[in-house]
Amino acid sequence: MQRFISLLLLGGIGVPAAAQTSYLQGQQPPHYLQLAYEATREVHPLIAVAHLNEAEYVRLRHAQERLLTRREQVLREYAPDSPVRPVLLHEVQVLFEQERQRALTPSQLSLLPDQLSDPLPPDNGNGLGLQAPQRPGWAELPRAAAWSAAPRAVRLPTAG
Questions:
Q1: What is this structure's pTM?
Q2: Domain for residue 33, yes or no?
């Protein structure tokens, strides 16, 4: 009788535990877990390379998760042939680089293998780099006046 009760108790505990992890047997895990796993996989090897302490590791892992989330959002929301897509992907990468620079010391940054050498956009041949398309209505806005002691009058565009 005691064996039957212990077997019943073991089965009562094991079945709900197996049901909670059913995505591990052939199904896809929730999306946020995939991003967390990818961020951990990217950042974990840097512990030994850059001599990260726990706080730096956590900050860098969260920055990596935000990078993956933002990058995926841009890839999902913009068509592959959209001229805005590469600009936004570059902005996401630059934001990640800034977060990484805030989280780590300069000596740690120099040890990272994937350190970007140039945070500027790639040159497209005209010397201006990658240009974002103008948003409608921005050309009509007044340009900011240069710094000077004398005030300048700025005429606002009229509706019509």
A1: 0.55
A2: yes
